[in-house]
Design brief:
The structure is a homodimer.
Chain A lengths: L1 H17 L3 E5 L8 H12 L4 E5 L5 E2 L2 E2 L13 E4 L3 H13 L4 E4 L9 H17 L2 E3 L5 E4 L4 E4 L15 E5 L2 H13 L4 E6 L8 H10 L5 E6 L5 H13 L4 E5 L13 H5 L2 H12 L2 E3 L2 H11 L10 E5 L2 H13 L9 H10 L10 E2 L1 H7 L5 H7 L7 E5 L10 H12 L3 E6 L9 H8 L4 E3 L3 H24 L23 H10 L7 E4 L2 H11 L3 E6 L12 E5 L2 H18 L7 E6 L5 E10 L3 E8 L2 H4 L4 E5 L4 H9 L5 H4 L9 H17 L4 E11 L4 E3 L2 E5 L1
Parallel strand pairs in A: 1-2, 1-5, 5-6, 6-7, 10-11, 10-12, 12-13, 13-14, 15-16, 15-17, 17-18, 18-19
Antiparallel strand pairs in A: 3-4, 8-9, 8-11, 20-23, 21-22, 21-23, 24-25, 24-27, 25-26, 27-28, 27-29
Helix pairs in contact in A: 1-6, 3-4, 5-10, 6-7, 10-17, 12-14, 19-20, 22-24
């Protein structure tokens, strides 16, 4: 509810940015090298629908428009000001504008937070002005804002202006990098995708990345909200927006840079050392249904596919091609992305075979051969007619489509009609286009909502993402219908979590046990006699481990003895462990030696938590031992997680099969793992201000049930 | 030596194809819908340097050229005929041509091997004609052959004609798919890369994929030989060519399709079941230094980088950019491909800082900001001047280069001069181009040998491949300088390899032992008493295993007992194993029970051999147990392998670290693994007609030495 109210507020304010009736350009200039000139020209060339007022104290007229000395002189109320002026003048002009009723501003100037402390101060002053005068600011240090549906070309960048606009404009784009944004805008336009909104948010002093996503989600004309992200400051909001987007079936496509900058954190826990910024973002995107793009090519092709409005019903994909080679390549790529190039059933094959030349192939991919594309292009229609009625086919890809068709070609008209009537997801892949000269046939297809994707094989990745998204969307719908089965515990255990400490194993176990996680039977002994007594209570065989908050890695100090079977052995092990620990860590505060039941063999997994500076508590799951250490076969999700998230965390491991039983072993209790993941999620949500890191390593999983065989908790 | 002679022969013959003085076009036509018209027009428009003779019994003149009824009427000797005629006329025309001294032909017609048995017969007849009359044939079922350096546009495909030609034409391209080849040709031209040769080999009745590669390797004007491959029939030749190419430092770039069609073979060995066509090709490309491309984008960008003639000295890469976002992306991508975005040393940073604005960043990536690109593009020169003399920098990437420069811009001229004088590998990445209108500045850079790569991030993959190639090239050079240290054994063990059998473990071990591979001490007992006697000879503890050629997977019949410590236990185990095997496999021929020493714990690996229908014996290496079963962490090479290959096979495993010692363990004896791999390679080379599959699973590796703990050999 809260977010909906906020949205209405912010959207109202942003509306002035995207739909101003009047614009004033500070620093408007006749000098063609100045951004004040370029900006004015962009608005004029773009055919902005409202009034434009150049502001410049020394000019009378610029580009045919009357120039004003100050904003006070402007005859109408100004909705938006664009500041094409240096940093030294920004604050004054902004205040002056606000005092004259201006509600929105774009600031291009650099020299703010990006240059360090001095700039941060200046930026904070901007923030204050924005709050005090209730004026929304895009920038500073940005390339600007476009609304291509009303001619608002709020930019000085020559890369963004003079680009022909496509007919369908239903994808919005917001970027944290100006230059990368411009590049994406151009590339998209070259491939027939014109963004309706383009926002370079710059330093985000006021209007943030998420604000723009929010605006686009609420804008009925926008079908896909896309963006380029370097780092999100408000992941909570992005998460809520993503949930909402999934609800209304409006995909969010984001390219997140910084994939490899995993960063090296000094972390005591395994989980902490494995958690890089990138794999946390990856988990976050997966759990929120945000579609991750890897490059601007992805943004373009994913957006094209996603904005078609159809969702594939499943993974069965048929390919109709005029190039055998290309067909094989696309089929290969489909297989590698988990799509299914299904064998068409005999009846379908027969029906297709009847209508294509004998040298063409009717198995999937259906290869009509190059000859067809040149001499007999209407052949493309025949397989479509049949596949459109094949219940086993979910998606049809037409590849290397004849490009000499145009809007008057009857076959193309019929092609479009069948596509529109069919519930199949259908798109066309084709030769790379020649720059801006988009073939007429392509344009006709695009205008009728059939995506045409030019270039290399990445539409296949796009299709795979769309199928994943469709599944996420359907699942979200189903989940919504069912009551959420979340683990509710919320116990008062704050006394077990003293500030800024590394808890010993037995202390850590106690916390887990309070949250219903099964731990080993154990007790801590400070003398040999106590250890023997505990061993007898627990029952042989037992394990002895050093218990000290200062020794998180017990193996390294030779602090563990397994499979101890008698009183004598207990005494010996107690001695040895104690001495070894004292020798290795003379300063350590040793609570004693923990005596534990010796657990039977099972599959070792690791469940962990780390605290990310952006996302807060993050849950990790992986296979234990060398799998986590060498193969780094782990998955992450941002807390809190759902049952579905927990399931996916297991399934996405390369070694997932190990849990299902290999080499004559029975499958382990995956439900019990999910239960632990959900309990840990609840625990760190309840105590997010107290818990910094958790390692349950190993959690031993059996055919029935699990036991946390070792645990480490670090508090804040 | 053999290959060199063959080359001279085939190159002489192919020369007629690529450099004919006269061409006759069978089926030349005035009907603009016929390929006979399109072909003639292509030759005329292409400005072919020699004489062109249309052949058509019913026309007098076509397109201004005198038409001839038959080839006998043509006044000059014809070097090349292009058959634009249906399959029914092909054989007659071909024979007629050959009788009139024609040495080469291009056949477009379809209806040959691609349509099945009838077509195969027709194709065999073509083969006969080629051999009998000594005429070289390109095709049938192909798109044709181009030589863009002499106007030989031997094609009917409108996609290939009327494409402007770039100035530098130093990359050749051969394709097994016509349509995919056309697509690649167009895309390459759009990005400023014009192939010098383009050959669509079609059904390869005569001129094969490798023949064209061979021709390009010997052609002094070709700097890179590239190709699109669906399946190579002569891998031996490709291997020899690849070795030769590495020797003369002329990279071969191949896109191999069929990545995912791993194919499911019924194989008794683990190795056989894991060997897919694709990972064998992958191994083959790695060991031969062939650069694998994944898409036509790769072919283009790799070829551009590789044809520059320079090789990066190492992995240190500096990025100079006008887009911070793009810089970060490229840096990320570099890291993920193992390239190093090195921290520039302080002196270098200081020097750069001095010459760029204060808001620009001098750390790597060096971000000059978008403002620089627009208002002050000559800033790009400053970091170049400094980095060109930085001994720590190997490669410099200039990204988002100012595109409004042209050949008269002094800064661009100086840029080129510095690049040419520098030993650094330098290239430019930039905005996607607008179709054929390549900016003048880009053209100027390309003309001066500085690659400009437009579009997405794949140049970074290209750079990584180039660095790998450079390393392979330098290694090949070094290896050539040293004598080859190969394992030479060649023992007569044919009697141990009876035809078409699955050998029992002890039989398989014997074969391995003959080739110097350390196996377990063992003997086969057919009675309890014999088993006890063997156990005492070997020394306790021992292992008992069922020994039968009919039971390759002993665990499945409960046929293994480990850690047996006494005579009594031996007797019991013998009984149980024998009975269990009899029960599970009543038909099996049981040799007895193998009594073996119980090996101490070590790291388990798998060494295997499978026979590939294309490549023959292929060697596999992987980590044992679940690593091979679940993670499929294995590597392949085609036999015979070198020491270097064996080393790389270990290094490329995800779990390679396990061999180097983790969790307080010492590193294992990697030299001993290499020794086994080389011995196995020699064994299967010596007996390639006898051995079909080998599994050594596990081979147990210790700190010193290895032991084959189990073995399986299947013969042909």
């Amino acid at each position: 509810m809260k977010i909906m109210n906020e949205m209405r507020f912010s959207n109202l304010a942003l509306n002035r940015l995207f739909h101003p009736r009047t614009i004033a350009v500070y620093g408007a200039s006749e000098n063609t090298n100045k951004i004040g000139y370029l900006q004015l020209k962009a608005l004029l060339d773009g055919g902005f629908e409202g009034d434009i007022y150049p502001i410049n104290p020394t000019s009378k007229k610029i580009a045919g428009l009357t120039c004003y000395k100050t904003i006070e002189d402007v005859p109408k109320e100004v909705d938006l000001v664009i500041l094409c002026i240096g940093i030294n003048h920004v604050e004054n002009c902004l205040i002056e504008s606000a005092k004259n009723g201006v509600k929105a501003a774009i600031i291009f100037a650099s020299g703010y937070s990006e240059i360090g402390s001095e700039g941060i101060e200046a930026q904070n002053r901007l923030k204050k002005i924005a709050d005090q005068y209730n004026i929304r600011i895009v920038g500073p240090n940005c390339v600007g804002l476009l609304n291509t549906t009303n001619g608002l070309m709020g930019t000085f960048s020559p890369g963004l202006t003079n680009i022909p606009l496509g007919k369908r404009r239903e994808v919005g784009f917001v970027t944290q990098s100006g230059a990368f944004g411009v590049l994406t805008y151009i590339a998209a336009a070259q491939r027939g995708l014109t963004f309706n909104y383009f926002v370079s948010v710059g330093n985000e002093v006021d209007v943030a990345f998420t604000d723009v996503i929010e605006y686009m989600l609420h804008d009925s004309k926008t079908k896909v909200a896309s963006g380029y992200l370097e780092g999100e400051k408000n992941p909570e909001k992005l998460r809520e927006l993503a949930n909402y987007a999934l609800e209304i079936n409006k995909p969010i496509v984001i390219m997140k840079s910084g994939r490899s900058s995993a960063g090296s954190r000094a972390a005591a826990s395994h989980t902490g050392s494995l958690a890089g910024a990138d794999n946390i973002y990856d988990g976050f995107f997966k759990q929120t249904g945000i579609v991750r793009a890897d490059d601007y090519d992805d943004i373009i092709s994913f957006s094209k596919l996603f904005s078609s409005g159809k969702l594939p019903a499943g993974r069965n994909t048929a390919i109709v091609t005029s190039s055998g080679g290309r067909g094989i390549n696309e089929a290969d790529r489909c297989a590698s992305y988990g799509l299914n190039i299904h064998v068409l059933n005999e009846q379908i094959q027969k029906a297709i075979k009847k209508n294509i030349p004998n040298y063409a192939s009717a198995v999937n991919p259906i290869d009509l051969t190059a000859a067809a594309a040149i001499t007999n292009p209407e052949l493309f229609l025949e397989p479509l007619k049949i596949l459109a009625n094949d219940p086993e086919t979910d998606t049809i890809i037409f590849t290397e489509f004849p490009m000499n068709w145009d809007e008057n070609t009857p076959s193309l008209q019929e092609f479009v009609r069948i596509c529109q009537e069919s519930d199949k997801f259908i798109f066309v892949t084709t030769f790379p286009l020649e720059g801006m000269s988009i073939p007429k046939g392509t344009q006709y297809l695009e205008d009728h909502g059939i995506p045409v994707i030019t270039g290399d094989l990445n539409p296949i990745r796009g299709l795979a993402k769309l199928v994943d998204y469709s599944e996420a969307y359907r699942k979200a719908k189903k989940e919504k219908a069912q009551p959420k089965q979340n683990v509710k515990i919320t116990k008062n255990i704050r006394h077990l979590l003293p500030e800024n400490r590394t808890l010993s194993e037995s202390q850590s176990s106690e916390v887990l046990a309070e949250y219903g996680i099964h731990t080993t039977k154990h007790g801590v002994a400070d003398t040999e006699e106590k250890a023997v007594q505990l061993a007898n209570e627990i029952g042989y065989p037992v394990v002895l481990k050093i218990d000290s908050p200062d020794i998180p890695h017990k193996t390294e100090v030779n602090g563990i003895r397994l499979n101890i079977a008698s009183d004598e052995e207990v005494k010996k092990a107690f001695q040895e462990i104690y001495e070894s620990a004292k020798k290795h860590c003379p300063e350590a505060n040793i609570h004693g030696v923990s005596v534990q039941e010796m657990l039977p063999e099972g599959i070792e997994v690791i469940v962990g938590v780390t605290t990310d500076p952006t996302f807060g508590p993050v849950i990790m799951f992986g296979l234990g031992g060398v799998f986590v250490e060498v193969f780094k076969d782990v998955s992450f999700r941002v807390a809190p997680i759902t049952r579905e998230d927990a399931l996916k965390m297991m399934e996405e491991l390369t070694g997932h099969e190990l849990l299902k039983g290999v080499r004559n072993k029975k499958p382990v209790d995956q439900e019990a793992i999910i239960d632990v993941l959900l309990k840990v999620s609840t625990l760190v949500q309840d105590y997010r201000d107290d818990i910094k890191e958790i390692d349950i390593n190993p959690l031993i999983v059996y055919e029935n049930g699990v036991t946390a065989a070792d645990a480490l908790i670090i508090t804040k």
